[in-house]
Design brief:
With 290 residues, this protein is an alpha/beta fold. It is built from 7 helices and 16 strands.
C-alpha cells in the first residue's frame, strides 16, 4: 500500500481486471468498484454464475440495477459456460504501474475457497491466496481464457490430484498423513480410499460439515466443527515431511468434482509460512479452538 501516491494517476492502458462471481452481497462494493473501474476505461471481464441455488432472481435484479448506468464499452460480462456451473472463485488484475518514470508489469492473482461476498464474509471462514508468481498468475489467466473462449466444457477439477495424493499416503502406511477440511464429502470412491488409508494406519483427520459417505461411528477420524464462524474453507494436506497442501473452491461431492468448474492451487514449496498457517489452523479446529 502506498499512502503517499494517488493510484488513479498510475493507471495505464494495459490494465485489465478478471473476476468470477458466484454470489454477491446485497449492496456489493465489489460490483461498485468494477463499475468505477469501467468508468475509468479499465476493461473488466466478469463471469457471473447466476444459477447459485436460490439466487437467480435476486442476482439478476441487483445486476440490472448496478450495471444500468455503467460504461458497457469496458464491461465484458458472461453469465453461462456451457452446461457447467462455474463454482471456482478467482480474480486476476493485470496492470502496469508507472513509478519513477518507468512502467513495471504488475500482475496479481487471487485463488479463493469462498465467494467474494461482503454479506457472508463476517460469518464465513475462508482462505484467499494472493500471488504475483508468474506461473500461478498464468494458471488463473488460462482458466479465464477457458471460460471466455472454449467451445467445449472443460473442467478444472482437483479430483485426480486428491486421489493420487491419497494413494501416495496409503503407500506410506503409519508414516502417511491425510488431513482434509471441506464443506461436504459424499464421493464414494474417495470415501473408500480414506477408509483404506485408516486401515493402513495413515494419520487421517477429516473436518467435514456434512458427509453421506459414512457415519461418525465408522470413522472416528471425522469431526464436525460448529462455532462462531461457518467453516467454509477447503484445505487438503498430504504428507508429514515437506507436506503438499492445496486450497480449493471444491468440496468432495460428485457434483463439485465432475459437474462444476472449480479452481485450486498447490501452495508452493517455498511458501513455508503459508503452509504453517494452514497446518496450525487445522490443528486448532481439530482441537476445538476456533
Amino acid at each position: 500500500t502506498r499512502s503517499d501516491r494517488d493510484w488513479s494517476s498510475d493507471v495505464c492502458s494495459s490494465d485489465l481486471i478478471y473476476i468470477t462471481l458466484y454470489r454477491i452481497g446485497k449492496n456489493s462494493n465489489i460490483i461498485e468498484s468494477l463499475i468505477t473501474a469501467s468508468k475509468n476505461k479499465i476493461p473488466c471481464k466478469i463471469f457471473f454464475e447466476i444459477s447459485a441455488r436460490g439466487e437467480i432472481e435476486n442476482d439478476l435484479k441487483h445486476l440490472y440495477k448496478m450495471f444500468i448506468e455503467a460504461d458497457m464499452d469496458y464491461l465484458d460480462i458472461q453469465f453461462k459456460y456451457s452446461d457447467v456451473k462455474v463454482h471456482g472463485k478467482m480474480m486476476l488484475i493485470k496492470t502496469k504501474i508507472a513509478y519513477d518514470d518507468n512502467n513495471s508489469l504488475f500482475n496479481i492473482g487471487i485463488f479463493s475457497t469462498g465467494n467474494f461476498n461482503e454479506d457472508t464474509a463476517p460469518i464465513y471462514k475462508d482462505y484467499h491466496y494472493i500471488t504475483s508468481r508468474p506461473d500461478e498468475v498464468e494458471m488463473i489467466e488460462r482458466n479465464f481464457d477457458i471460460l471466455w473462449n472454449s467451445s467445449q466444457p472443460i473442467l478444472s477439477s482437483i479430483s485426480s490430484i486428491i486421489i493420487k495424493e491419497i494413494y501416495a499416503e496409503i503407500e506410506k502406511g503409519k508414516d502417511g498423513r491425510i488431513w482434509i477440511q471441506t464443506n461436504h464429502l459424499d464421493n464414494k470412491y474417495i470415501v473408500s480410499l480414506l477408509k483404506t488409508a485408516i486401515a493402513k494406519g495413515v494419520d487421517v483427520k477429516l473436518i467435514v460439515r456434512t458427509t453421506k459417505g459414512f457415519h461418525k461411528k465408522e470413522l472416528k477420524n471425522c469431526r464436525t466443527v460448529v462455532g462462531k464462524y461457518l467453516e467454509h474453507s477447503r484445505v487438503y494436506i498430504f504428507g508429514v515431511k515437506e507436506p503438499r497442501i492445496y486450497i480449493s473452491s471444491s468440496d468432495m461431492l460428485f457434483r463439485n468434482l465432475y459437474n462444476r468448474f472449480e479452481v485450486y492451487i498447490k501452495i508452493p514449496f517455498i511458501d513455508a509460512n503459508t503452509k504453517m498457517i494452514l497446518i496450525n489452523d487445522f490443528n486448532r479446529l481439530w482441537d476445538g479452538k476456533q
